[in-house]
Amino acid sequence: MRLSASGKVPESFSKVDFEKEIAPLIVEHCIRCHNPGNEKGELSLDSVQALKEKEYLSPGKPEESYLLDVIRVSSKSGKAEMPKEGKPLSEAEYSLFNRWIKQGADWPDQLKLQEKSKADLSWWSLQPLAHHEPPALKSLPKLWQQNAIDRFIYARLQEKNLVPSPRATKRELIRRATYNLTGLPPTPEEVAAFESDTAPNAYEKLIDRLLDSPRYGEHWGRHWLDVVRFGESNGFERNVIIDNAWPFRDYVIQSFNDDKPFDQMVLEHLAGDVIGKGDSKIEVGTTFLVCGPYDNVGNQDPVQAAQIRANTIDDMIRTTGEAFLGLTVGCSRCHNHKFDPVKQQDYYALYATFSGVFHGSRVLATRAEQQKRTKKITPLNARKAELQKKKSQLQSTIHARAEKKSAEYEKLWVRESVKRTGVEDTFSPISAKFVRLTSEGLDTNPSSKTGYRIDEFEVWTAEETSRNVALAKQGGTAKGANSRVAGDFSGAYDVNLTIDGKIGACWIAGSPDLVIEFKQLETINRVVFSSDRSGAAMSNYKATFLADYKLEVSTDGKVWQEVASSKDRKPVNANHRRKRFYTSEVTSGEQKQISEWDTEIRQIDRKLAAIPALPAWWVGNHRQVNGPFHVFVGGNPQRKGEHVVPASMSTLSKVTNGYQLDEKSPHGERRLALARWLVAKENPLTPRVLANRLWHYHFGTGIVSTPSDFGYMGTRPTHPELLDWLAVQLQENGWQLKAIHKLIMLSQTYQQTSTFRAEAVRIDSDTRYLWRFPPRRLSGEEIRDTLLSVSGKLNLKMGGPGFRLYQYLQDNVATYVPLEKFGPETYRRAVYHQNARAARLDLLTDFDCPDNAFAAPRRNSTTTPLQALTLMNHQFTLDLSQFLADRLQSDVGTEHIERQIDRAFRLLYARPPVLQEQLAAKKLISANGLNAFCRAMINSNELIYLD
């Protein structure tokens, strides 16, 4: 080897360090488009194997390596074929690749290249909680010195050349605090008591009272239900209602009212079945895992079924990551997160953790409750089993006896068996106005007489040009009970389908009989009927047909004469044959004995039914699913990649003590380990995210304005030191929330007026630095609850199954039709509404209540014409205008208009009217009546805006 004059090895001979020189270039220029799962041109550049297989690379032979051709800059165009986006490689970088290939293209086998995320482990939210001391400020006003929160806020205001606003009035404070903690308006009596209370701690006492109110849990529980995407239908195309998910809603409300430590709630949400087995009050917490949308169509294609299952677990992963960690973990399903340091392996470690969770109901009861019920039902079931055994033995004897006479019976069966494509019976001409078909057994179940289908029933006249006189267009009518009704598709299974002259759509029988009445007396001699005339559904249960039947005719609908039956037809299957033999062979004495046993069995069944069932709630089912678990390349379950096990996320590996479990570890232990890791003292994200959520719901915007995204695509905190200080307070307070509420609400920051100041708006138009209290409009639920409250109609019943503001129509899919009339059963707080996904609910939807198909960590606040139209003209608000008028007259009398006006203002606005308002109100009432005045008050901005 020749040395240069300087004594250094010439660059053209030095060994290329792949990891330091080539790998960074591939990651910078190539891996974004050529990554596993995102393989443009079907080429992955995470390892050297694909380059060799696709003949892009010939180690030692640069002249035969197509890779160099695509990255070479053309001397004519000045461009390179690759990379497609971004600047091409420089001449020096191209030469580096050339030398690397010439030297053998060394690429360590264990080295897998991955696209770098925009943020790394040094990202602000991934750092340990800092124990900041509140700033010491020389010019701090006296009132702002007492609460640490104020010192943090005041410091930032000074930096921005802003000054705080004066303290709000008592009327403003009680209205603000009452809505903030309970979602309801204060009563006039509460306002008067607070305004007259001159004690220094009057405001503190107000907060204590509100925090002790059961209304607190209802309001703040609603916030959490938004975050965890709680819904009471399964979504997707079927979207059927889930009637037993409401206990989770009650559990959340009670948890907030009890000030249950939030770390305990996390444990219960993820592993309540493990830490509280047998205790329904704890186990119900696991509804968190399964209260999101899921596809229950039941695809029989194994590839599609695997994809649906992957989508189901993805919902659990995303919700867990966003609700507790404020990380969009779901973005790592197909590849490493492009913005945050969340690896695809992290996502699939969580996938392994949740692999044993399945949607569905489960009985929740203590061992004592189970034993008590078992003690009641065991003797009844034992006696029932004894009777059924005796019955079965006797029936077997009868069947055996009949089999010996099989030839004798079978010679009576001279006609072919019934066929779903059509049955024809002919008989001697007879006069009739009615024909009755009676079921005596189905082809799917010879013991059942209902549930069969008829797509067309024809009755033909005995004349040269025969007519089908059963047809509806010929004046025929059909009668028969429907066993199935589709509320969202009128007539879908109706009895009239049997005589509409069309095949395909079927009547589903809810009774054994189908009766056809003609327009007039006719002479008939032939009947034809079917369940699947075309044969398209012959092997499907949807074509269930009669196996045994009889046909009767009548002239008056009272006296009937049999004209045909299936007695001489061959049985449709072995079960039907067995039933025929039994019916022919059983003696009257044997039948009497069986009837006696059946009577006693029915009595036992009634006793069993009278014993209350143990509660079955929508808490999910859990079963052991062992590995091996893999990364799904590109998110595709059919493309198994790297092996993974249940483990903590590498995202916080530098600040937390992680865990890793065996792939065969008990499924509950996996979820419990995750929950404990989430609330471990060294985990900075969970307390930060929770503290920010509290701040968000108190001020309308969080310190981080993206409450469920503390990553690169989220916003930076306006007051990072305050956020950490609050998070530390949460931990030191044992994760209980009420003390933090009180701390925030006692601050001068919270007690400021919301008065507009032009000079401050020019600096901070969004009030992010809190130079005033940010005004806000009430949420949809708050507006609805307020209207009910001020009109005196709000029913404060807590818990239990919810009410519905829609008519629920369900067949194969569900339809939700908004109600047009509202009864007292709908006058409960909106949190108790049975919230179905994709169900439009007028006032609630118009005022931005989110569709719970997705988590809603923050509510939108739009202004639309529909909102004004709904408040002005919807039947609900019209009703409440009348109720409010009735209340005013009841409260102060019918003759005192001034007192009615005063009472209305105090009820709706927590203040008396000024003179101008009093005069305008009297004029309106005089011209249009009290009801019109109440309607105008309900439609005012002051009612639906705070401050």
Overall body shape: globular
Q: How many separate helices? A: 33
Radius of gyration: 37 Å
The main β sheet shows up as: 6 strands, antiparallel
Describe the structure.
The chain has 947 residues and is α+β, with helices and mostly antiparallel strands. Helix content is 40%, strand content 11%. Strands 5, 7, 8, 10, 11 and 12 form a six-stranded antiparallel beta sheet that branches. The protein has a two-stranded antiparallel ribbon with strand order 1-2. The protein has a two-stranded antiparallel sheet with strand order 3-14.
Helix and strand arrangement:
Blueprint: H1 18-29, E1 34-35, E2 38-39, H2 48-53, H3 66-71, H4 91-102, H5 148-159, H6 170-182, H7 188-196, H8 202-212, H9 214-227, H10 246-257, H11 262-275, H12 280-283, H13 287-290, H14 302-325, H15 344-353, E3 357-358, E4 362-363, H16 367-403, H17 406-410, E5 423-442, E6 453-454, E7 456-461, E8 477-479, E9 507-508, E10 513-530, E11 546-554, E12 561-565, H18 574-585, H19 588-610, E13 616-617, E14 621-622, E15 629-632, E16 640-644, H20 667-678, H21 685-699, H22 720-732, H23 738-745, H24 748-751, H25 758-763, E17 776-777, H26 780-790, E18 806-810, E19 814-818, H27 843-846, H28 865-873, H29 875-892, H30 897-909, H31 915-928, H32 930-938, H33 941-944, E20 945-946
Antiparallel strand pairs: 1-2, 3-14, 4-13, 5-10, 5-11, 6-9, 7-10, 8-10, 11-12, 15-16, 17-20, 18-19
